[in-house]
Amino acid sequence: MPMPAISVAMSVYNGERFLASAIKSILAQTFDDFEFLILDDGSTDASARIIGNYAAKDSRIRPIMRENRGLVASLNELLHEARAPIVARMDADDISRPERFARQTSFLANNPDYGVVGSWTEDIDENDEPYQVTGNDHPQDHAGFIEAIENGWPLMCHPAAMFRRDIVLSVGGYHAAFRHCEDYDLWLRLASVARLGSIPERLIRYRHYENQVSSRHATEQQIGAAVAYLAYCERAAGLRDPTADLDRLPPLNELDALFGRQGVARAIRARVAPNLLYSRTGLRGDGFDLICRYVREGGCRDGMWRTVARLLRFGEPLRAARLAATLATG
Asked: To 10 degrees, what angle do helices 218-236 and 264-276 make?
């Protein structure tokens, strides 16, 4: 078979709800020289059947069916299965605009110094209705990308990314230690070997809903991202990255030992706590104890009393009382 210009990489786990729309949006691309790798990661719903039905109709789809191994393993497998020099990421719950691949392939062809290009997003909810998001759009050029890293702003929408496969493989692909923030860690590692940016067009409809991974694993994701940033700073300073060979990050209270100095865990809590104040999952899970310890360590109290009220609205009166007592005695 002739080599396609693009390999589209999609991992699916129990994605039946939005999967058909995601697949159809790829098959409708105006740039159609691609293979479409869809890996079913041991789904227990109708995902495999949906994938099989579309594969029977379109020869560009290469289905991969196997047992569950997790997203990071699936993404790395897709990287190694890809035949094209360019890989386009896609998730099973989002929708690509028809012109997405045409715009991104043109950008990479005209900007050989760029290794990754994303796009701005149109944010939607589970019913395809507009979803209100505040904050900055993703940075357009590499200088803006570095600025976004330093300021903790959004870097790139993972399912909107298109990248040169060899560059991603050269930094080791996705790292298992950064589960649930594997893309953020990858962008930070790539920033030292390639240029990254996003086309200022809303080429993907990015979906927000309560059961998505970023909602279900908010605390672990935020801690992982904070550690990834610290590792980025270590590398930028010419120091050894202690996370480079890890399969899993250690508990938060072991990070001082991992990085070989005191205060690392406290710095991570200070970076993470403000990002969990609006997370229902984080406040109901391990993020709550992290926030309380952050307050006891003298952390910023802005918005904390509003978080007490939020806990009451979330049906967590005991946690609301605990946080109030922590604030009152600090």
From this structure: 130
Q: How many domains does the chain have?
A: 2
Residue 110 lies inside a defined structural domain of this protein: yes
Within-domain flag for 1: no
**End of a domain among 183, 214, 245?**
214
- Model pLDDT for residues 110-164, shown as the tens digit of each residue: 999 999 999 999 999 999 999 999 889 999 999 999 999 999 999 999 999 999 9
Q: What are phi and psi of 202, to 5 degrees?
A: -90, 85
Query: Where a domain ends, among 214, 239, 262?
Result: 214
Angle formed by the axes of helices 182-190 and 218-236, nearest 10°: 10
pTM above 0.85, yes or no: yes
DSSP letter string, 86-151: EEEE--TT-EE-TTHHHHHHHHHHH-TTEEEEEEEEEEE-TTS-B----SPPPPSSHHHHHHHHHH
How many other CB atoms sit within 10 Å of the CB of residue 241?
16
- 114-124/162-164 β-pairing: antiparallel
Domain range holding 249? 217-329
Structure tokens at 70: 């997790």
